[in-house]
Amino acid sequence: MHPTASIVFYCTLPGKPLAFKTLSLPMLRYFLPLGSLFAVVVATPLRGADEPDPKKHWAFKAPVRSAVPKATPWVRNPIDAFVLQRLESEKLTASPEADKITLCRRLYLDLIGLPPTPKEVDEFVNDKAADAYEKLVEKLLASPHHGERWARWWLDAARFADSDGYEKDMSRQVWAYREWVIKSLNADMPYSQFVTEQLAGDQLPNATQDQSVATGFLRMSMLNEEGGVDPEQFRMDAMFDRMDAVGKAFLGLSVACCQCHDHKFDPISQEEYYRLFAYLNNDHESERVVYTPAEQMAINGIRERVREIEMKLMEANPTWQKRIAEWEAKLSPPPQWKTAPVENAGDNSQRYIPQKDGSILAQGYAPTKFSTLMRGPSPVKQITAFRIELLNDPNLPCNGPGRSAIGTSALTEFMVEVESAKEPGKRVKVKFVSATADFDQPERELEKRYDDKSGKKRITGPIRFAIDGKDDTAWGIDAGPGRRNVPRNAVFVPESPLELPDGATLQFNLKQLHGGWNSDDLMNHNLGRFRLSVTDAVGKVEADSFPAHVRAALAIPAEKRSKGQTESVFNAWRLSVSEFKDTNDKIEAQLKAWPEGSTSLVAQMRGEPRETRILKRGDFLKPKEKVDAGVPAFLHQLPKDADGSRLTLAKWIVDTRSPTTARALVNRVWQSYFGNGLMTTPEEFGTQGEKPSHPELLDWLAVEFMEPSAPLRLAATPWSIKHLHRLIVTSATYRQSSRVTPELLAKDPYNRLLARGARFRADGEVVRDIALSTSGLLNPKIGGPSVFTPAPQFLFQRPVSYGPFDWTEATGDERYRRALYTFRRRSTPYPALTVFDVPIGEASCVKRTRSNTPLQALTGLNETLFVESARALGKRAILEGGTTDADRLTFAFRACVSRKPTADELAVLTGLLEKHRKRFAAGEGNAAEVATGEKEPKAKLPAELKMNDWAAFTLVARVLLNLDETVTKE
Predict the structure, then answer these.
(1) Which of these, 136, 190, 248, 815, could form a disulfide with 844 (CB 3.0-4.6 Å)?
(2) Closest among 789, 767, 735 to 851, alpha carbons compared
(3) pLDDT by residue (tens digit) across 877-936?
């Protein structure tokens, strides 16, 4: 606590009534013994506002490059000059440089999040070149593991998680965003571009898949799909979360305070909050299919081969254009359909949102077995056929048209009842005699993801299944990867035309019984967006086999069609020609090889902008005045011609005139290295933030980050994060020893003055990765989906988890991926990481708490992967460490902490090893179970590996992996 801080107490003193006291620390020591404390309001240290006018607060002015103080022999770069100036003003001196072994380990943990091997330590120690340290820095900055280590730092701010949160807490596939972050940081993408792509990558010219995926930053908010929820309420909650994340991650400002009212301390009004809000309020809640680089290459190959086949077909049929014209002349126009204006007449747990085109969009809770009941007046007096259209929508998984995890649906039964106007309340069921669809899925057994545990064989297939009266069959629309997420339509013909001279009410019963047993785990197979219509056309009425884009192309004269439209018509024609069967089969074979891909949540701009209004007290049911997109008046302003797009917002944030953007990023990077930022309130650069310990250094770094100076820039470009890393780790400030004297500890307990190197427990992921790396188990694979590493199964069953969750424990090498890739389920946080203060992703986090608790020790000693790491390290010590106990213990010790053990330490370890050997020799424990986890192991051991030795070394390794020095960055 700051020595000048005060604490506010409610106190009861002997014989006195309730009193309200403000106590300084000396007063606190006096009062504590006298009374009882029953409530505490935590006070804050001195804040950073010297200027009474908040608009003139130092952090609201663009940073200016500070003059660098005069250099001395200790100074390696300008960082040191600023630090030394402050130390001298406090009558302190810098600590000596740490030894090379300590520096090597420090660099590895800071730059790639993994410890060095003994060999790597020796190579650095033995490198006598003057630039040996700088070479190691460059090597680690170039490592592909650098992006992994720093991705986790960014993902905290992005509130990354692999599940939705709330009650259902369903899984989401968003690892493509994590991959983008890793790749971007490895490539040293300029921070200005890094920010822009996350806020508006999809709005850049010719946006790539990666740039669209980057907007996942905005979509990492929690999502509630409980029964009966109002989707708009939780969309607004997600919007508030996005504003909070933008404020913390990019601006370093507590803008979220203005959701309900004007900011109490900073000059941001509620109206200005909603002006910023308007930039983010014009998007779909979209999820798109994405492909890895290898899958993209495969897709390009498929397209090339299909094009070659089509070109050969054209060459073999030089009159194809004439034949198409003849074919077109014979085509019959589709019948005229009239949309049935229906409303939900059934259960309201799944919400049905009417669309302007007469369709219905299903949102919110997604039950797995139910019937959708829609009711409305018939738009015609005679009905000869009914139609259902399944339509795409950006707010559905994979763009729909269904609500399943892959955007598909299954219609078990299509039923209609007619209620005559003359006989209200009396409904007559329509009997259908035929059904056609633009796609008849081949008959196949339902996929395992929709298992309902009934043991019944359930099938999806052609459209006739939707009128066969059987609950175990359904019309399926899955045409396979690359072709499943397209509109579909089906037509149902009654036994005889329905005559409705006086009008009638139609009730549609859309049975959807092909979901799984658990509505909390993406097992629905529901319709997503659909439109119901009827026709009174005479003659044969069938489903239109042509997609809308083909119909649109056919409506244009051949000579005026674009290249794409001509290709669309050609493909429709070739599929209709029986003599082309072999060619069509070849193309079909190519298309069946289309990769499955994955999904990612992204921002996708709406065609029609939403209206943004100020919300009274932040309540979405109480809209007030309408506002347009804009920025706070006290910050730098926009160009006069600026529009309301997210791209405008992104450019405004990374403008070099922005007072907080560069400062916030520099401060957070500094915080990662030294435990505290130059400002200890990284989320709050406003008037309630703490004063920076080195204000001139903060501003110099901010400007240097945006505009590298000539003598220091090397290969750095503006906004280079690696340039920032390089500056910090090559400074004398960073290279100081972390040893602390009692006097220095008393004067500067939190090392704000930087008179010594940083020393603190590594982040939770790094602690776990240290164990895996030193044991030799670590799988160094980079990227890919999240992994279900070992966890107690009861966590994912009731009552611990609201809904059962299938946590299928990874095996083989996947089990030992870096902690970065561990599946993050918000409602049941991964215990072995949470106990080490890893955030769970419910909100943007720009500063982790860091604790040291007995639970951490218990985890390191007993959690599955830590125990497996101890076994593997014990085995390595015997097989790779040498022939003597001293050599083997030294090997294991160095693997954990990099340095060699002292004589006393080696003596303690030798005694511990001998103690356990004797125990196992005396039969006091099962050596096989300790060493292998099996009471009677089946695998045969190498000749040089004795079970008692392995078990003893395992227990010693267990101690080594849990040394304070092992889990600490010195």
Answers:
(1) 248
(2) 767
(3) 999 999 999 999 999 999 999 999 999 999 999 999 999 999 999 999 999 999 999 988
Q: Select from 196, 303, 209 the least CA-distant residue to 598.
A: 209
Burial string for 788-804 (b: 16+ CB within 10 Å, else e) reads: bbbbeeebbeeeebebe
Does residue 799 have a cis peptide bond before it, meaning omega lies within 30 degrees of 0? yes
What local confidence, expressed as pLDDT, does residue 941 receive?
87
Q: What share of the chain in percent tops pLDDT 70? A: 94
Cα 494 to Cα 200, 209, 381, 415: the distances in Å are 50, 46, 15, 11
- The closest alpha carbon to 452, from 509, 510, 405, 519, belongs to 519
Q: What is the pLDDT of residue 522?
A: 83
pTM of the predicted model as reported, rounded to 2 decimal places: 0.92
> How far is Cα 237 from Cα 223, in angstroms, rounded to an integer?
9
Determine how β-strand 473-476 pairs with β-strand 459-461: parallel
**Residues sharing a CB contact under 8 Å with residue 356, sequence separation 6 or more, in sequence order:** none
329 φψ region: left (φ > 0), alpha (ψ -120 to 50), beta (else): alpha
Question: Rounded to 5 degrees, what angle do the CA atoms 830, 836, 838 make?
Answer: 60
Residue with the two structure tokens 């300008």:
78
d(CA 282, CA 605): 6
Unique residue bearing structure tokens 């072995």: 832
Amino acid identity for residue 114 in this structure: L
The whole-number pLDDT of residue 712 equals 65
CA angle (168 as vertex; 164, 174 as ends), nearest 5: 25
Mean pLDDT of 33-62: 62
Model pLDDT for residues 539-598, shown as the tens digit of each residue: 999 999 999 999 999 999 999 999 999 999 999 999 999 999 999 999 999 999 999 999
In whole angstroms, give the CA distance from residue 46 to residue 400: 54
Distances (CA, A) of 142 to 188, 658, 875: 10, 30, 32
Going from the C-alpha of 13 to that of each of 23, 34, 391, 470, the distances in angstroms are 14, 6, 71, 78
Query: pLDDT tens digits, residue range 302-347?
Result: 999 999 999 999 999 999 999 999 999 999 899 999 999 999 999 8
Residue 89 · residue 700 · CB < 8 Å: no
For the four alpha carbons of 422, 428, 434 and 436, in that order, the dihedral sign comes to positive
**Helix (H/G/I), strand (E/B), else coil: 283:** strand
Instruction: Characterize the bridge pairing of strands 360-364 and 529-535.
Output: antiparallel
Cα-based distances in Å from 902 to 195, 207, 710, 958, 967 = 48, 58, 46, 19, 19
Residues 6+ apart with CB under 8 A from 149: 110, 111, 112, 113, 114, 766
The residues near 747 (Cβ < 8 Å, ≥ 6 apart) are 90, 92, 753
Judge whether 427 and 404 are in contact, CB under 8 Å: no
With a cut of 80, say whether residue 389 has pLDDT above it. yes
Among 476, 465, 461, 482, CA closest to 409: 476
Report the relative pairing of strands 19-24 and 6-12 from DSSP bridges.
Answer: antiparallel
> CA 421 to CA 427: how far, in whole Å?
10
Q: What is the pLDDT of residue 800?
A: 87
Helix (H) or strand (E) holding 488: strand 488-494
**Is-contact 263 257, C-beta < 8 A?**
yes
How far is CA 175 from each of CA 121, 139, 154, 814, 893, rounded to the nearest angstrom? Answer: 33, 27, 14, 15, 36
Could you give the CA distance from residue 171 to residue 521 in angstroms, rounded to a whole number? 7
pLDDT tens profile 820-866: 999 999 999 999 999 999 999 999 999 999 999 999 999 999 999 99
In DSSP terms, which residues pair with 510 in a beta bridge? Answer: 372, 414
Distance CA 838, CA 336 (A): 59
Could you report the per-residue pLDDT of 678-735, keeping only the tens digit for each?
Answer: 999 999 999 999 999 999 999 999 999 999 986 766 667 999 999 999 999 999 999 9
* Main-chain phi, psi angles of 901, to 5 degrees: -70, 150
Asked if residue 371 has pLDDT above 50, the reply is yes
